[in-house]
Amino acid sequence: MTESPGADGPLTRSPVRSPAGTRPTMVELRGVHKSYGSVEVLKGVDLTVARGEVVAVIGPSGGGKSTLLRCVNLLEPVTSGQVLLENEDLTGPGVDLNKVRRRIGMVFQQFNLFPHLSAVDNLTLAPRKLLQMPRDRARERATALLARVGLAGKADAYPRQLSGGQQQRVAIARALMMDPHVMLFDEVTSALDPELVSEVLDVMRDLARSGMTMLCVTHEMGFARELGDRLVFIDGGVIAEQGRPVDVLDQPRNDRTRQFLRKVLR
Fold it and tell me: What is the mean pLDDT of residues 143-149?
């Protein structure tokens, strides 16, 4: 058993994660293509993510990593193929995407906080408007989540009063407010000064250890090695290689993977 803070603050006990192959599927991409005009960015991607699995996605700039992530919740509508969440086809007719997206939390490179709102108000806006959550309950939950990400004393601070790392942790807590079933992270440390990266990665470690399903586009190879159940290397719009992080990082089979890792690990 492992211990981690629950959504309302106190420590909760979580079982050690079982192998991904024994768990139900959370996210599945089937033959996903994405084009912008004549430019094909994703070229038939197949990917399955199990419930509670942490999948780290790496690859060169322009290879399709962020586009893949944005296709999961259809921020970028796919050109063809299917995206399924808990066996529900998000690309099928009649799907209420706004309702579905409540089960998917996403954190971007930029923090995207409302500058005129305090940290706690940034967190409570969506659940109050979309879920009709009472103000007192929303603030109680927001305060607990801010404590979980190490910002217990910053509930009433405005974004301009917070460091980049603190703003990114507020953004993570905001995504958690909707009680998502899966979290998507798009290079969430790339805009931070090096000394602030660790505080954000610590929050992601806590989420991974608590059993959250996570799909993380990242350049933090140490994080991928430590907590990833699987490492996916994307290049040229296709998955060129995937496997256990230790295997892909230490003994890559694909020539393109080897070339990429030689540059980023030296």
Answer: 96
Residue 209 and residue 12 in contact, taking contact as beta carbons nearer than 8 Å:
no
First-residue to last-residue Cα distance in the chain: 36
Please tell me the distance from the alpha carbon of residue 125 to that of residue 122, in angstroms, as a whole number. Answer: 6
Cβ–Cβ under 8 Å, residues 81 and 28? no
Mark out the alpha helices in the chain (DSSP H runs).
Answer: 65-72, 97-101, 119-130, 135-148, 164-176, 194-209, 221-227, 245-250, 255-265
pLDDT score at 215 = 97
- In whole angstroms, what is the distance from residue 99 CA to residue 92 CA? 14
CA angle 7, 9, 11 (to 5 degrees): 95
3-class secondary-structure state, position 219: coil
| Per-residue model confidence as pLDDT tens digits over 182-232 | 999 999 998 888 888 999 999 999 999 999 999 999 998 998 998 899 999
Q: How far apart are CA 53 and CA 26, in angstroms?
A: 9
DSSP type of residue 138: H
Residue carrying structure tokens 């066996």: 87
